[in-house]
Amino acid sequence: MLHWARADEETLTTITPFVAVGLVLALALVRPLNALALGDDGARALGAHVDRTRILGLAAMTLLCGAATSAVGPLVFVGLAVPHIARMIAGADQRWTLPLSLLLAPALLLFADVLGRIAVRPDELDAGVVTAVVGAPVFIALVRYRRTVPA
């Protein structure tokens, strides 16, 4: 379950190096990821190292997702939907999609937390429950929208 109370100063100190390395790595991979969106042959033609980009991208994703999960718990819907929403807003260019995802994810979690606090007053719903309940239909709609709109 998603618990904001678990994110104390000790947790922040523990995950900071992983977040820093993950962010630097992700931001350094923006151009190779854009090239990789053209396919392996297109990326190689543009000078990208396909295998290295995939491995480093996986490493960045693992560092960032692991740090977030260890700090507050599983963020399933956020990890699935936010990149799709960011791509719908900013297009396929990773130079815009990645930073927009970095801004949308905490905004979505804040919205879920506030909604969980006011939806069943005086009790409180966990933000993870709110993102799952609200997120499932939204994600299904996103997938359907992506099928009907050409890339």
Automatic annotation (TrEMBL):
It is a multi-pass membrane protein. It holds the Pfam family FecCD. The keyword Metal-binding does not apply. GO terms for biological process: siderophore-iron import into cell. Coiled coil: none annotated. Keywords: Cell membrane, Membrane, Transmembrane, Transmembrane helix, Transport. GO terms for molecular function: transmembrane transporter activity. It comes from the Bacteria. GO terms for cellular component: plasma membrane. Its main location: membrane. The chain crosses the membrane at residues 12-30, 55-86, 98-119, 125-145. SUPFAM superfamilies: ABC transporter involved in vitamin B12 uptake, BtuC (SSF81345). It is found in: Cell membrane. Belongs to the binding-protein-dependent transport system permease family. FecCD subfamily. This is Iron chelate uptake ABC transporter family permease subunit. It comes from Streptomyces muensis.
